[in-house]
Structure formats: structure tokens, C-alpha cells
């Protein structure tokens, strides 16, 4: 009986990973491609795809035979968005951060241990603006949003990400797995990360975590700007604004990680 229960739980996990991979890819994918991405056998992935297709969660393109997210996922997302709309709650904080720090502000949510930008507010105070579009998926290992997201993900998710070849965006990108792990430990201690020149030379990003339901990661807030205005390490005043907004937003979501963190620092 216990083995049957374990198999059922594992089947659900694989199905969720398939949906996460399709969401991250933002395009239709074939059985072979999904199996390689998830480190599973083709027959196993095909069985799960068939079941998901029957429930309407995914659809199959008849000409290419590739799979994509189905209309039912959109319906579920709309329903979830009504109950838990992080973007809506974060709107006043995005405005507050932009107006206090005079930088572009970004909100991202975790998808399978990797960040996806869901909202941004461009800097209206600068003549030249650095913008990050919603839907952008910064690399998990060499971006501030990515490392903050990965730092508060499960060890299993971290191992999966760091087992793959780590691509460099610039000569400054962090691509050594051991160095990334050390950085993740720092992120968990200080509750922020920065990526000066790792995504784009001359540009720095500072990100802080948002929590929900205790210590579960809900997302991340970040500011993006030139190294001239966001130095490395970032200014204490910049971190103070980000941490205060993230802590208040977390409290609204019943997240208490900042309470424990601040107590530990004290």
C-alpha cells in the first residue's frame, strides 16, 4: 500500500515538472526534448503527457506532434489569480520603491526554482531607462533574481539546476557550480543578492525575497539600474527600502521569515 502511495506521489511530481518545463519554455515541446530536460525516460514522459492531454491540461499540435499548455491551465491560472494575486498586492510597493530609489523595479515569481518576471515599473526619473519586460526569465545562476529564487528553493531543485552546463551572459557571469553554491549560502544569510555586470555589462540588479505561509518563497523584488547608481555592494539605504517593502508584503501573505531573520540579526 505504501509503495502504491509513493508511486502516486512521484507521478504527480513528474506531471508538475512537465507543466513547469512547458511554462518555462513558452513554446511547444516534443517528447524527446522534455525527457532530456527532465532527466526521465521517453516512455515515462509519454505516459504522463497522454494523461495530461486527456484532462485538457496540455494540448498536442497535430502537425508537429509537440505539446503545449492547454486552455484548462489558463482557466486554473485565472481562478488562482483571483484568490492569490501577488502582482496586485505588490503594486503599491513597486511604486514606492521606484519613487524612493529612482530606479526600475521588477517583481518575479518562482517557477521550478527559476524566476519569471511578472511585473515591472520603469524608472521615470532618468533620461535613459533600463527596462525588464514581464515574461523575462533571468538565468538562475548568474542573476540576482535567479540566485535569490534558487537560494530559497529545495536542495533537489538546486542540484537539478547546477547539474546542467551553466551559460555565461557576460565575462562577469558566475558559472562555477561551487561558487554558485557558496553565493546561495550568502543569500540565505543576508536576504539579498546583486549581479553587477553578470547579465549586462554596466548594469546591476539587487533582489530580495518575498515569503508566504511562513517561510515559503512567494517571489522576489528587485531594482535594476546602471552601476553608477546601484554600486556593488549596494548602498545600505537601497537595501533598507527593498527589505522593508519585502517584509511588509510578506507579512500580508502570512510569511514570517523576515521576523526570524531580523531577530537573528539582532
What is the oligomer described by this structure?
A: single chain
Strand arrangement across the biggest beta sheet: 4-3-7-6-5
Our count of helices gives: 10
**Topology, number of strands:** 7
Separation, N- and C-terminal Cα atoms: 49 Å
Shape: globular
Average pLDDT over all residues:
90
Q: Estimate what percentage of residues fall within beta strands.
A: 15-25%
Q: What percent of the residues sit in helical stretches (DSSP H or I)?
A: 40-55%
Give the topology, please.
Blueprint: H1 2-25, H2 31-38, H3 42-55, E1 58-60, E2 67-69, H4 71-83, H5 86-101, E3 104-111, E4 114-121, H6 144-151, H7 155-163, H8 177-190, E5 193-194, E6 203-212, E7 216-226, H9 236-252, H10 257-265
Antiparallel strand pairs: 1-2, 3-4, 3-7, 5-6, 6-7
Helix pairs in contact: 1-3, 2-3, 5-9, 6-8
Briefly say what this structure is.
The protein is α+β, with helices and mostly antiparallel strands. It has helices at residues 2-25, 31-38, 42-55, 71-83, 86-101, 144-151, 155-163, 177-190, 236-252, 257-265, and strands spanning 58-60, 67-69, 104-111, 114-121, 193-194, 203-212, 216-226.
